[in-house]
Amino acid sequence: MASLVGSRVERKEDKRFLTGKGRYTADINLANQTYAIFIRSPHARAQIKKLDISKASKAPGVVSILTGNEIAGDKIGGLIAGWAIRSEDGTEMKCPANPPLAKDSVNFVGDPIAIVIAESLEEAKLAAEMVKVDYKVLKAVTSTSDAMKGDTIHEGIEKNLCFDWLLGDRQKVKEAFDKADKVISIDIINNRLVPNAMEPRACVADYNSGSDEITLYTTSQNPHLSRLIMSAFGNVAPEHKLRVVAPDVGGGFGSKINVYNEDIVCSWAAKKINRAIKWVAERSESFLTDIHGRDHVTHAELAVTKDGKFLGFKNETIANLGAYARVFGTVTPTYLFGPCATGVYEIPAAYSNVKAVFTNTAPVDAYRGAGRPEATYTIERLVEKAAMELGIDRTEIRKKNFPTTFPFKQTLVHTVDSGDYVAGLDKAKQMADYDGFESRKKESESRGKLRGIGVTSYFEACGIAPSAAVMSLGCGVGLWESAEVRFNPTGQVTVYTGSHSHGQSHQTTFAQIAADELGVPMENIDIVHGDTDKGTFGMGTYGSRSLTVGGIAIVNACKKIVEKGKRVAAKMLEASPDEVDFKDGEFVVAKSNKKKTIGEVAFALYLPGSRDSDFKSPLPEGEEPGLKETSFFDPANFSFPAGSHIAEVEIDPDTGEVKLEKYTACDDFGRIVNPMIVEGQVHGGLAQGIGQALYENAEYDETGQLMTGSYMDYTMPRADNFPEFNIGYTCTHATTNPLGVKGCGEAGAIAAPPTVMNAVIDALGGQEITMPATAEKVWKACKSMKKSNAKAA
Amino acid sequence: MKSFNYHSAKDSKEASKLSSSNSAFLAGGMTTIPSMKLGLASYKDIIDIKGIKKLSGIKVSGKSVIIGATTKHVEVANSKDVKKAIPSLALLAEGIGDPQVRNRGTIGGSIANNDPSADYPSACVALDAIVHTNERKIEASKFFKGMFETALKKGELIEAIEFKVPEKSSYQKHPNPASRYAVVGVYVAKHKNGTIVAVTGAKPCVYNDKDLSKALDSNFSANSISGMKLKSSDMNSDIHASAEYRANLVVIQAKKAVEAC
Hints:
Chain A is α+β, with helices and mostly antiparallel strands. The chains are: A alpha+beta, B alpha+beta.
């Protein structure tokens, strides 16, 4: 049987999704359900003086209106930060309480203060308009760079500073800089993004008074984790009385990791009113209240010798957390960012210092790439600038500083198990026809256009897992993953995974893996996920961890199945287990034609006896019947995909429009399970990364109003913004897992922003501009370029 | 969305009779319905005019193209007659919004709404159009009054738009990358008796740029307007484009339009 791992198997989930048979949270309707609308703050920062629900409560169809007072009265807990970060001076981070419904003060536009529950959505909306809130509006703090100078948002958190974190050695860095021939420095902004999953958030909460159980259907990337948080910190219900189901989920990109206010409030309120409650976000609510991504202001420096060797690296960053610290809010700008900021280079001394600040804006948390795009942007912009200032080819300077032996002990934290950065860059250059750029540039210039080329070499740390490692860095939970593999008596297989698919195609790739391990046809394997009542506890999907952690748990559970099968087959075939080999779904006694299929063995395990066998069990003595195995996998290390990307842009100096002409991505994801699905992941990541570089920007005004709160103003890139992506791979197998796989979900979003910006800035003759490189910004840069050229002439 | 009374009018007369100070005509609904959904607008009565047969259709003669008010963008874009008589008009229609919008949105709805960054108003001005209503005929130059404001009176219904066939013409726009509305759109039309350069997106209301028109009248070439600096003080400025940038775009798009004529 040919291996399914490595082949372009069509997606099992496509038929369901493409024919409208998916089942999303908004598709779920329960008998006698009510509808919820949340009353949200229209102000970025205010005190709630008075909340008057008297008129609204009497409006037609209203079932109940609940506020921050009731939820506080019932001692329902708020939202939490999942990682505890310590400041350089050893003090613990300072986080404000984040109640599910604000009682006294609101801290960003969209902060919920009450829930209106009615018989119909329309009645809920009409009643919501009758809720009167008297606010005392306070001056909002919205700027990332000035947040520490603003009014104190949360009592007791001075300078709005959550923590002032350091990774690395300042003294060593100082010494390195003292020895440098040249110091390259940049000031960059990593623009704030709105994740914009295709499916807006939603939840349906149900309560059964007979069993005292709450069931929450919600748009989550990690239902088990949501249940744990809602139970342990939210006090909503004990875990065994709370079922969380995340059915089909239409995209997450990190925005659906968090437990949100609405999840907690609807679950709590459903029990209170003893009826089901449905809430579905409108797109404008998603813009305002989904977590946002990025939002860093960074000053970074690279100490170099005149021949281009890197000696030291400094990174001083202010990271905007928004109004509250959420699940991955504090780790994203620290351990997911700082270690990766030295990139794929051997740099003897480095530090990253991050000040995380609160502002009156939507909470910022993990968004595709989470910290690594910001890190890669920092180092790759610096390296490109160093090449320009030193007059060294941008690819040569990179190669000069690549590690050439693995494992590679990176300057800060990580030991990278495997990779070949030189091969990746060489292949990318060849794929992109790097050497032909000058002639393409001349051709563009003959048409009055500017052309630029940009390169990025990246690595990233994903597959977030080793529990001991992440917990030592402040994570509140272990990040292993579980799998359960269950045979039916008639030979089909159900695989339960703690990972969650919201676009990742687990139904297909996980079935490919299990099919290879068990020798069972893929169509006889079902993947089940997303329900705390089905399968064991799991940590969910984010940080490109599903395959490298969850997938390996499946492999290991399958191996246990095969081990048990061997013992039983041996007994059935009257051989010793050592003599039995397993291949392509068959247990074969060595040097014989005696064999049993895995289906026959499963059947025997469920029906261990027969009419004629005279009490003789086919099972070895002491063997339990049934065929089901569980595995919890906690890998030895993160996963370290890497690669080199090359972009070419053409700029119309009359309008400043940037056209992305060519984009080449050459990635090393280790062994690839399904090339088609990996291509999809790369394409999606690139679209989001290019979106950040050229189009997307979440912009607040001084009063804290989101000015880009709809698709009229927030530029989501579209297909016609992209060229056909040129995608290739190099392959070094990961040594930290039995499949040799590495994460691929975030690479595009990590590598694309610096690649595209390096190309834009190259076209502009080295003039720095900030992301997104909108037409007007580029036009202005073109004008000043013309001026300085005229002066030079 | 608040509830409302829905009426389907059988002719213009009935539509007009049903209208009040708290009603809206509904054609494609591309602006009215989103505004109602967002709570920005609410009406007691919605008067659907899509069923009025007389209001839809395209008639082309040697001198003019007459397009019924409820004719959809897709119909204009695909009309062989329009493509032949005024190709730039068909191209403009093809560039409005996205396929869903073009399959629903109507020309009458677009010009009655007079969005400062809509495409059609520039065609009306550049092609010296006459707006036929159930009460009168209004010249395009007098029809567009200001931001979202037209010469239409309450209950007055656009029935058709009559475009003058120019010698040559072209519409060029710099779309907003988010909404794809025009940041600036310039419609250049060379008529026997002179050139009109209609600009949308740059100011609160579509206008004929007299400086550009004059320059092109004396010499219809891109060179004649190249490098012209327009006054930007009365141009729109927002997060997408400053007034200065818009002023530049008007000249650049006008040049492109002349080159494409």
